[in-house]
User: Fold this.
Amino acid sequence: MANVSLQHIKKVYPNSETKKKKKGEPEKKSNLQITEEGVLAVQDFNLEISDREFIVLVGPSGCGKSTTLRMVAGLEDISGGDLLIDGKRMNDVEPKDRDIAMVFQSYALYPHMTVRENMEFPLKLRKMPKDEIDRRVNQAAETLGITEYMDRKPKALSGGQRQRVAIGRAIVREPKVLLMDEPLSNLDAKLRNQMRAEILKLRQRINSTFIYVTHDQTEAMTLGDRIVIMKDGVIQQIGTPQEVFDHPANLFVAGFIGVPQMNFFDAELVKKDGKYAVELGGVSVAISDEKQANLEKNGVQPQAITLGVRPEHIALLGDGAQMLHGTVDVSEMMGSAIHLHVTSQGKDVIIIVQTMDLRGPNQVSITSGQDIAFTFGGNVVHLFDRETGKNLEA
Ligand SMILES: Nc1ncnc2c1ncn2[C@@H]1O[C@H](COP(=O)(O)OP(=O)(O)OP(=O)(O)O)[C@@H](O)[C@H]1O
Ligand SMILES: [Mg+2]
Assistant:
């Protein structure tokens, strides 16, 4: 049981001299801010985590997820700000005294110990009575379905089984806070899905607060009560999976959350007879009432915008004149849907067409090179400032 509060947390690494870039080496992707202090790996990180909440930190490589987690664990010094657990400042508390357990991507099991010994180890360190150790280890083994491997060494286990042991070793401590850094990324796709479901079940059975790091947006969406999306050491948005999907705070979040990615168009936001509309490709789309109100509230002026529309919100069948046009580059058959890659308005556009609906199979036969017409409603558009990328409704 624990709430965790991160207040203006900052991490500065010394600015090691930039190595000479070798020829042909790719450009460094991260754009961390550099000040006199050094490299800002995490900036002004603010988050109030409730007791038993499941928080997921997500973002591209190098955005500061692990650094943030390691600061919570005490494996990394906090350069600025306050970390509180149940109201107590933890910045200078030793890792072992924080009542936190961490599961790493690499499992980090002791190879010379059996599964049981691996799981007992943190409890023996704490000089817990033998019968309490047995009770906890057996219960964790049961929870994770590893009872039959208890006498094996880690090398005699599959990746998924090892990962379960690593999680088992963390939960036997019944920690207030359970930290996980990409625990599933060494597993194949099928096992990942399975373990994702296992983690969801686990969280219902134990009382810990979870902070989970991943770069996989699907994992973030399916596991998190709330998701924290980071880029270049800066939080971009915090919200429930539905909130960040429906109302992305900016272009980055819009592009990061959702598969396939949201489509982006250059468009004009105009106002006619006091009502907002978007214009592109000679077509005008009236904005829904709810969105009108949000734009009014923010006093948004007509301007050049980046228009976002999710692939699943585009329809191929519309009525007549108000259609956008494009040419199909490729058509990917996914079984329940077809993903069309289309060139339109000088952009790559992805359109999802369901192959089956409630009325039965959809008669879609679309081939490469074919010209198509498509449309979308004024209730599914996302409007971003062309310069700043900020959501104009936010
Ligand atoms: N000891 C260090 N000294 C200097 N810079 C560091 C150090 N450790 C990490 N960094 C930098 O801090 C940034 C954040 O690193 P971090 O490991 O937190 O990223 P991440 O979001 O976990 O990425 P990944 O998904 O690749 O694990 C990176 O740009 C990294 O290069
Ligand atoms: Mg990391």
